[in-house]
Specification:
By secondary structure, the chain is of the alpha/beta class. It has three domains: 49 residues; 71 residues, 2,3-Dihydroxybiphenyl 1,2-Dioxygenase, domain 1 (Roll), CATH 3.10.180; 64 residues, 2-Layer Sandwich (Signal recognition particle alu RNA binding heterodimer, srp9/1). It has five helices and seven strands, in the order ααβαβββαβαββ. The strands form two sheets. The chain has a four-stranded mixed beta sheet with strand order 1-4-3-2, covered by helices on one side. A three-stranded mixed beta sheet has the order 5-7-6, covered by helices on one side. The radius of gyration is 31 Å and the shape is elongated. The relative contact order is 0.09.
């Protein structure tokens, strides 16, 4: 706005417009600015109404309850290159990748505070993982996370397959999952020590096997 006013004043002083034209131009400019400010205020108010309660920044951690956290620890550290931290040597550790973390810990056991909890403990049941070891059995799940995909650097479909075959995690004729034909996307599904569906994915280059079909 100040640049516009300065230009109008220069034009007036240079004789390019008279006083009446200057006043009319300033009035038009002021009206335009007021309308713009009102529109911005309305847009901001509308955006505030639609704005979610929180804005997700990144994945904090994934919690895995497993039979033996040490087996899970060694598997993900060796295959996926995750960094082991805060290993208590007994029940759990943290596995870091980038700014995210996989928390591997042994199954919770229910406190036998009632008959149902005691029966679950005697039967070796896992209790209620979501309840942090509270008594009682967990109801049958109706929904689940069916897999988690980790993306790796320097992807090469053939090399990844060969490494998985070498480790006994895939067959030599295993086909990559391309996400239904997503351009330059390639991945493989394997089972981790506890039977979780582990998807290993990456972006395929122009010379990658999935792009040479």
């Amino acid at each position: 706005m100040k640049y516009l006013i300065a230009k109008l004043l220069r034009d007036f002083e240079s004789g390019l417009m008279n006083r009446r034209q200057l006043i009319e131009s300033l009035a038009v400019a002021a009206t335009a600015v007021a309308a713009s400010n009102e529109a911005f205020a309305q847009d901001t108010a509308g955006a505030a109404k639609k704005h979610p309660a929180f804005r997700t920044a990144e994945l904090d951690h994934i919690s895995y309850q497993v039979k033996d956290y040490r087996v899970t620890r060694d598997f993900y550290a060796d295959l996926m290159g995750m960094e082991v931290r805060n290993d208590n040597g007994k029940t759990q550790c943290e596995l870091y990748f980038g700014n995210s973390m996989l928390l591997a810990r042994n199954h919770f056991r229910p406190r036998p505070e009632n008959a149902e909890g005691a029966a679950a403990a005697a039967a070796g049941g896992g209790g209620n993982p979501a309840g942090g070891g509270r008594a009682g059995r967990r109801p049958p799940p109706t929904s689940l996370v069916d897999h988690i995909s980790y993306r790796i650097y320097d992807w090469d479909t053939d090399q990844v397959r060969e490494e998985l075959v070498r480790r006994g995690l895939a067959k030599s004729d295993s086909k990559p999952d391309t996400g239904g034909g997503i351009k330059d996307y390639s991945s493989f599904h394997v089972s981790d020590p506890d039977g979780f569906n582990l998807q290993i994915s990456g972006w395929a280059g122009v010379n990658d096997a999935v792009n040479k079909k």
